[in-house]
TrEMBL record:
<keyword id="KW-0812">Transmembrane</keyword>
<feature type="transmembrane region" description="Helical">
    <location>
        <begin position="6"/>
        <end position="29"/>
    </location>
</feature>
<feature type="transmembrane region" description="Helical">
    <location>
        <begin position="145"/>
        <end position="165"/>
    </location>
</feature>
<keyword id="KW-1133">Transmembrane helix</keyword>
<feature type="domain" description="ABC transmembrane type-1">
    <location>
        <begin position="108"/>
        <end position="403"/>
    </location>
</feature>
<comment type="similarity">
    <text>Belongs to the binding-protein-dependent transport system permease family.</text>
</comment>
<dbReference type="InterPro" id="IPR035906">
    <property type="entry name" value="MetI-like_sf"/>
</dbReference>
<protein>
    <submittedName>
        <fullName>Sugar ABC transporter permease</fullName>
    </submittedName>
</protein>
<feature type="transmembrane region" description="Helical">
    <location>
        <begin position="333"/>
        <end position="358"/>
    </location>
</feature>
<feature type="transmembrane region" description="Helical">
    <location>
        <begin position="239"/>
        <end position="260"/>
    </location>
</feature>
<feature type="transmembrane region" description="Helical">
    <location>
        <begin position="280"/>
        <end position="303"/>
    </location>
</feature>
<feature type="transmembrane region" description="Helical">
    <location>
        <begin position="112"/>
        <end position="133"/>
    </location>
</feature>
<keyword id="KW-0813">Transport</keyword>
<keyword id="KW-1003">Cell membrane</keyword>
<dbReference type="GO" id="GO:0055085">
    <property type="term" value="P:transmembrane transport"/>
</dbReference>
<feature type="transmembrane region" description="Helical">
    <location>
        <begin position="50"/>
        <end position="70"/>
    </location>
</feature>
<dbReference type="InterPro" id="IPR050809">
    <property type="entry name" value="UgpAE/MalFG_permease"/>
</dbReference>
Length: 412
C-alpha cells in the first residue's frame, strides 16, 4: 500500500474511532445506563454527569497504561531475568554485572557531565537571548532564528555538526569549518591569545562562578537567619552543593594549567570527535544549540510577565542595568528558570540520538541510553539492557515529579 494512502487511512481510522467512541459511549450512558426519564430522572442525570468525564479520560488512561505502565513493569521483570538461562529469575545479578562494567561507569560519568553543562548553558543562553531580543526592534526575527533549531531533529542536527567537525587529510581541502579555522593558526601571538589565553580565562571565570555558587548555597549553614529552621535533608543538600561547587572550581583551575601547558599540533587537521573528554563538549554543543531556543521562548514570556511597577521602582532607586536584571528580574522568574532547567535535564538524561549518530559511544562518549541500546539490540542481553533502562527511569522520575510540582505551583 502507498505510504501516503496508509497515513491518510490511519488518520481517518484514528479520528473516526475517537468520534465513534465518544458518540456511542455517551449514547449508551444516557439511554440505557442512566436514562433521563421516569421517577429517577434527576438522579440519573446527575449520575451520568459524574460518569461522563471518566468516559473522556478512559482512552488516554488506557493507552497510558498500555504503552507506559506495562513497559515499565515488563522492563523491571526482564532486568531480574537472564535470557541465556531461558528467562530464569536471577535477582540482582544483572545489576551486579552492569556495575562491574567500565562502560557503564563511563556512561554515568558522561551523563553527569552532560547534566552539569547542558541545562546550565542552555538556560543561561536562553535567558540572555530573551533579555536582549526584547530590547531590539527586530527582536521577533531574532527569536525566530534562535528558535529554528528546535524544528530540526537530533539526528539532523548531528549530521550538520558532523560536517562542521569533519577532518580530511592534510593535502585535501577541509570541508569542516573547525579544521578550516584551525589550520590558520601557526603558533604565533594570535594562536597564543585565542588557543591559550582566551580558554584559560574562560576556565578561570567558570572556576570563580562555581566557587561563588557553592558559597551562596552553603552560606545559610553558618549564618543565623530569621524564619523556620531548615531540615537535615536541606542542610545536607546545601553542604553537597557547596562541596560540589568547590570541586568544580578546583577542576577548572587545573584546566587553566592544562590549557596553558598543552602541546598543540599546529598545521595538522584534527579528528575532533576522537579527542577523549573534549569530544563530549563538542557533542553537548549540539543539544545546547537546539535547547537554547526553547529556554528563550519560555523565559521571554516570564520576563514579559514581570510587573512594571517593580522595575520602575528599582530604576527610581538608582538600580543599574545589571542590578536591575540580576536582583530584580531574575528573582521574580526563578520558578520559571527552575522549570526550564529541569525540563532540559530530563532531555539530557534520555539523550541518545546525538551520541548514536556522531560517535556511537566510541572514544569515551558513551551515555546511558546508548549503553542500554548496545546491550539490548547488539549484545541481545535483555537483562543488563533492562537494568540500565531502570537506572535511567530512576534518575528521571524524581526530576519529573519535581518539575510537575513546580509547574502546578506556578499555575496556582
Amino acid at each position: 500500500m502507498n505510504p501516503a494512502l496508509q497515513g491518510l487511512m490511519t488518520i481517518a481510522v484514528g479520528v473516526g474511532g475517537c468520534l465513534a467512541y465518544f458518540y456511542f459511549s455517551n449514547l449508551v450512558l444516557d439511554r440505557f445506563i442512566f436514562p433521563a426519564r421516569g421517577a429517577q430522572a434527576g438522579r440519573n442525570i446527575n449520575r451520568a454527569n459524574m460518569v461522563r468525564p471518566w468516559l473522556f479520560v478512559f482512552p488516554a488512561f488506557f493507552f497510558l497504561l498500555l504503552y507506559l505502565g506495562y513497559p515499565v513493569f515488563e522492563t523491571l521483570r526482564l532486568s531480574l531475568t537472564d535470557r541465556a538461562l531461558g528467562g530464569a529469575f536471577v535477582g540482582f545479578a544483572n545489576y551486579e554485572q552492569m556495575m562491574n562494567e567500565p562502560k557503564f561507569w563511563e556512561a554515568m560519568r558522561n551523563n553527569m557531565l552532560w547534566l552539569i553543562v547542558v541545562p546550565a548553558a542552555s538556560t543561561a543562553f536562553g535567558l540572555l537571548a530573551a533579555q536582549l531580543t526584547d530590547r531590539i526592534g527586530w527582536g521577533n526575527i531574532a527569536k525566530s532564528l534562535i528558535f529554528m533549531p528546535m524544528a530540526i531533529s537530533f539526528v539532523g542536527a548531528s549530521v550538520i555538526f558532523k560536517l562542521i567537525y569533519e577532518a580530511r587529510p592534510v593535502d585535501a581541502a577541509q570541508i569542516g569549518v573547525m579544521n578550516a579555522v584551525w589550520l590558520n593558526f601557526e603558533g604565533g601571538i594570535w594562536s597564543f591569545i585565542f588557543l591559550r589565553v582566551f580558554p584559560a580565562i574562560l576556565c578561570g571565570a567558570f572556576a570563580v562562578i562555581a566557587a561563588y555558587v557553592g558559597y551562596l548555597a552553603a552560606r545559610p549553614l553558618w549564618e543565623d537567619r530569621p524564619g523556620p529552621r531548615e531540615g537535615v535533608m536541606m542542610k545536607g543538600a546545601r553542604a553537597f552543593l557547596g562541596l560540589f561547587g568547590l570541586w568544580l572550581a578546583w577542576v577548572s583551575v587545573r584546566g587553566v594549567w592544562g590549557v596553558l601547558t598543552a602541546s598543540l599540533p599546529y598545521g595538522e587537521p584534527i579528528n575532533w570527535l576522537t579527542l577523549p573528554f573534549y569530544n563530549n563538549f563538542l557533542l553537548m554543543v549540539i543539544l545546547i544549540w537546539i535547547q537554547t531556543g526553547f529556554a528563550m521562548v519560555i523565559l521571554s514570556a516570564a520576563l514579559r510577565g514581570i510587573p512594571e511597577e517593580t522595575i520602575e521602582a528599582a530604576i527610581i532607586d538608582g538600580a543599574k542595568p545589571l542590578q536591575l536584571f540580576f536582583q530584580i528580574k531574575v528573582p521574580q522568574i526563578m520558578g520559571t528558570i527552575v522549570v526550564v532547567w529541569t525540563t532540559i535535564t530530563l532531555v539530557v538524561l534520555k539523550i541518545f540520538d546525538i551520541v548514536f549518530a556522531m560517535t556511537n559511544g566510541q572514544w569515551e562518549t558513551q551515555v546511558l541510553a546508548n549503553y542500554m541500546y548496545d546491550k539490548l539490540f547488539r549484545a541481545n542481553d535483555w537483562g543488563v539492557g533492562s537494568a540500565s533502562a531502570i537506572v535511567i527511569m530512576a534518575l528521571v522520575t524524581p526530576i519529573l515529579v519535581w518539575n510537575v510540582h513546580n509547574a502546578r505551583k506556578e499555575m496556582r
